[in-house]
Amino acid sequence: MADQPAPTVQIFGLKKSAATRAAERFFKERRVKVHYVDLAQKPIARGELARFQQQFGTDGVLDKESKAYEDSGLPYLRLSEDGVLQKLAQYPAALKLPLVRGGKVVSVGEDQERWAKMLE
Fold it and tell me: So what's the pLDDT on residue 90?
């Protein structure tokens, strides 16, 4: 019986985000290798962000309850989808964090059900 490679996940988030810390804890408790991208240090690539946006829609990746969403000006701007993605790269706290990718499964926000699917 061949050993399966250990699953790895990529988490895009901010250290001050409780949901991001919950995702890190979820995977570390299950001994899953985590590749963490701190969006305060390195903006998310537009192509990567587009992957989440395609699956969840623009509204699905926005944290409309956050102060950062308000501060970004997004509620008042009329932008194309591409324009919104550009703005989100500048204001990652306006995203519904964390963004997690494991294999072909992606999740937005705290979503333990989808995180568990990444490990199947």
Answer: 84
19 touches 98 (CB < 8 A): yes
Provide the whole-model pTM: 0.90
**Total domain count, the chain:** 1
The string of pLDDT tens digits covering residues 26-42 is: 999 999 999 999 999 99
Q: Which residues of the chain have pLDDT under 50?
A: 1-2
How far are the Cα atoms of 4, 13, 49, 77, 117 from residue 40, in angstroms, in the given order? Answer: 34, 8, 15, 23, 28
Examine residue 52 and state whether it is found in any structural domain, yes or no. Answer: yes
CA–CA dist 14, 19 (Å, integer): 9
Structural domain boundaries enclosing 29: 8-118
User: Alpha-carbon distance 89 to 5, whole Å?
Assistant: 32
| Predicted pLDDT at 20 | 96
User: What are the strands, taking DSSP E only, across 14-116?
Assistant: 33-38, 99-102, 105-108
CATH of the domain at 42: 3.40.30.10
Which structure tokens are listed for 49? 């962000």
Decide if 1 is inside a domain. Answer: no
